[in-house]
Amino acid sequence: RLLLIAGVFFIAYVVFTSAVVPNGNTQKQEETQPESIVVQSPTEYTVKAENNRVVVYIDDALYLKTSTVVSSLPKSDQKSLLYGIKANSKSELNSILEDYCS
User: Fold this and answer.
1) Which residues pair with 53 in a beta bridge?
2) Is 94 strand, coil or helix?
3) How many of the other CB atoms lie within 10 Å of CB of 10?
4) How far is 93 from 102, CA to CA, in rounded Å?
5) Element housing 43 (H / E)
6) Which of 6, 12, 55, 98 is deepest in the core (most CB within 10 A)?
């Protein structure tokens, strides 16, 4: 009788584990494939003139509006801002903004 009970538990265990992990290879594949996390950083900042203010875009999306009036800047700076000034990093952006907004 004890042997019969042990057999029932063993069969139940086999059925349960095969239901939880239908294919042993699937579990191993999941363990060997690392999750890839993509952290997207801005690829390009653009500082330009818009509505007579200095503004910053990240990849064509508005990032920052400053209170600096473009018409108060020297003509050469106004011309540069009309075309847009590119920055490839946050430190480059900060340097440009210090030049125009201080």
Assistant:
1) 50, 69
2) helix
3) 10
4) 14
5) none
6) 55
